[in-house]
Amino acid sequence: xxxxxxxxxxxxxxxxxxxxxxxxxxxxxxxxxxxxxxxxxxxxxxxxxxxxxxxxxxxxxxxxxxxxxxxxxxxxxxxxxxxxxxxxxxxxxxxxxxxxxxxxxxxxxxxxxxxxxxxxxxxxxxxxxxxxxxxxxxxxxxxxxxxxxxxxxxxxxxxxxxxxxxxxxxxxxxxxxxxxxxxxxxxxxxxxxxxxxxxxxxxxxxxxxxxxxxxxxxxxxxxxxxxxxxxxxxxxxxxxxxxxxxxxxxxxxxxxxxxxxxxxxxxxxxxxxxxxxxxxxxxxxxxxxxxxxxxxxxxxxxxxxxxxxxxxxxxxxxxxxxxxxxxxxxxxxxxxxxxxxxxxxxxxxxxxxxxxxxxxxxxxxxxxxxxxxxxxxxxxxxxxxxxxxxxxxxxxxxxxxxxxxxxxxxxxxxxxxxxxxxxxxxxxxxxxxxxxxxxxxxxxxxxxxxxxxxxxxxxxxxxxxxxxxxxxxxxxxxxxxxxxxxxxxxxxxxxxx
Length: 497
Known about the structure:
Blueprint: E1 2-3, E2 10-11, H1 28-57, H2 61-69, H3 71-80, H4 82-100, H5 102-139, H6 145-158, H7 161-177, H8 182-204, H9 211-233, H10 248-278, H11 286-321, H12 325-362, H13 369-401, H14 406-426, H15 438-465, H16 470-485, H17 489-496
Antiparallel strand pairs: 1-2
Helix pairs in contact: 1-8, 1-11, 2-6, 3-4, 3-5, 3-7, 3-10, 4-5, 4-7, 4-10, 4-11, 5-6, 5-7, 5-10, 7-9, 8-9, 10-14, 11-12, 11-13, 12-13, 12-15, 13-15, 14-15
Function: Involved in peptidoglycan biosynthesis. Transports lipid-linked peptidoglycan precursors from the inner to the outer leaflet of the cytoplasmic membrane.
Family: Belongs to the MurJ/MviN family.
Main location: membrane
């Protein structure tokens, strides 16, 4: 059974196993459906992981050190690769494939891979060197020396993660550009398997402690890479050891990647600022409580913003490359409008059922009633941020498809400044236990205002491009031809006079 048109079709037979399922090309709806299923599986496994983690470590010093240690590796990875590389690589790869053929497209892919390997290795070495100063002076200056030392050690272990993730991102970008979302979707679900394994080791092997989930993160990202390799091998990839920093395709990727990486990096700098402020909160359980609340809020954001956005980007990029701006605007409005409409009820559900959900899932072992109450309070603030975050993820895809990464960077910088200002401002009014609300409320105000600005700018941009639409130009030519053909010989003669 098939619903929708060619781009928005939904064919149930495409999901039948066998017959090269991993090689099938999916529409926007089919790709989003696959990614949503994978994200649901990933989040369910993530809840299992968090239940075990909370039961073992609660919201104590080890948990705070673990959460804080992930900040620098995550930021470095997203500055160089992450979603930034996927958004920059796909439009250029598709354009090269269409204009210059498969051979040049694979040469470009090899060059991007080689350059990324060198950059991520350099980032790993630099990160190992700066970790102590970064943790002590920027990340958690309000924590005790023992917590700082543990955070430094865990950070240095986790810094291997960006190298593996960066190489896996190239594989994901190749598969996504071919509209093959199955294996990238499976890789999302597989990630938590490694983390759960590390936690089980911590539980049953004496003396491992917090190092179990820390090394588990490295196993998790390695699994993410390995599970996508079969799909890559079926693409007839032609790897070559090419090193040409003046390659025009690399220059195009770099033009998109630089502002895109800076835009995503700005968002992660916001997380570092949040952690910095949180280290001074009177309740020592605040950082762990914020992490648990953010994890629950991240499910609807990922389902709506990430899954739909990742599926939508290749289609928007193809339409932009073909000059079909009217279709692009129609598709963007339909998908974004429907997705944003889902975030309001999702936010209400989080606010209404957050407390019993936290109690049911997390209040076991070292996770006590106080931790539950504090997590629920933080979740109320994060629920307010949900619509703006999901809308921002979707709207940025429209700019990336137009090969404009500077606008998202500018709006993200604006959001960071607003977030920073609101942290200082709200701290003047919220004290004691309620002070934890400052962090999510600052995020909500910044994300909501940024989404409104991005939406207005994208619609204005596409409206300007309508005159350049290839279909519109052909229609205008046809109208002029029909108008000229209706003229009588007398009228034609008078025109020449």
